[in-house]
Write a structure and sequence with these properties.
Elements lengths: L8 E7 L6 H9 L6 E7 L6 H11 L3 E5 L6 H11 L4 E4 L5 E2 L3 H12 L3 E9 L15 E2 L1 H6 L9 E3 H4 L11 H10 L5 E12 L9 H15 L4 H20 L1
Parallel strand pairs: 1-2, 1-4, 2-3, 6-9
Antiparallel strand pairs: 4-8, 5-9, 6-8, 7-9
Length: 254
């Protein structure tokens, strides 16, 4: 395993009214066995105590930084502000209600070095809004290409890391939902292959009324990505959407 003083990792954390969860998120970053990171929290005009919590943590750890947006911009623009200010070679993502396991960065960066991956992602677990970890693991394939990703998004945002030295800084498309999916497609469309580490190294919090918990809404945004962002033909959009529906149904039956 690599030492804990390698290349700088910039962790992009979008936050909007995450007062109940953001401390757990920050604690999971501070507990990393890999130490050379900066945590960039971008607050999208929260109306709760999120900002004060982040500021309290900044006073204890100088690696934590805050971007306080003056108007609500949505998650895509919020994350892109943080990406613009990132100083690290590696860009990682962790929203303000999710958590990492302590060896996440160390293991994943070692994996990226071994595979020479420009984009990597890992398996993860899910937990309830109250933080109860569910049984089972969201598994990932060894590799994914652009055409494969069109059929199903196998990359959890909280697990993804890309190498800005190899790819440059790549921003998210400015859409209300599924902007992380749009980012992975943008990267893979360049001919890049994403590498999956099939070990759960993060935990995704399923919140009430989220897109991930509403299958019909998620399907709507999936279609918009095909037509509006990727600008696929109607035939190719239908083809990939049928795959998306089939794979989603099969996953729900396991």
């Amino acid at each position: 395993m690599m030492s804990c003083d390698g290349e700088l990792v910039s962790i992009i954390t979008a936050c909007y009214n995450c007062e109940d969860f953001i401390q757990s998120t920050i604690d999971s970053v501070c507990a990393q066995t890999y130490h050379n990171w900066e945590l960039i929290v971008v607050d999208d005009c929260s109306t709760d105590g999120s900002v004060q919590l982040v500021q309290d943590n900044m006073a204890r750890d100088k690696r934590i930084k805050l971007i306080n947006l003056q108007q609500n911009m949505g998650p895509a623009k919020a994350r892109n502000h943080a990406i613009d200010s990132a100083q690290g070679r590696y860009i990682a993502f962790l929203d303000g209600d999710d958590v990492w396991y302590p060896e996440k960065l160390e293991k994943q960066l070692f994996f990226m070095n071994e595979t020479q991956a420009a984009l990597s992602f890992t398996a993860y677990k899910k937990m309830s809004e109250a933080g109860v970890v569910q049984e089972g693991v969201v598994r990932v394939p060894e590799k994914v290409t652009y055409e494969q990703l069109l059929k199903s998004c196998v990359i959890g945002c909280l697990t993804a890391i890309y190498d800005a030295r190899k790819l440059g800084k790549v921003s998210m498309p400015d859409i209300l939902k599924r902007q992380d999916y749009g980012l992975w497609l943008k990267i893979l469309k360049q001919g890049v292959v994403g590498f999956g580490l099939d070990e759960p190294l993060a935990c995704y919090r399923v919140r009430k009324n989220s897109v991930s918990s509403n299958k019909f809404l998620a399907a709507q945004y999936q279609w918009r990505v095909y037509r509006q962002i990727e600008q696929l033909s109607i035939v190719k959009s239908i083809y990939n959407f049928l795959w998306y529906a089939y794979l989603g149904f099969r996953k729900s039956r396991i």
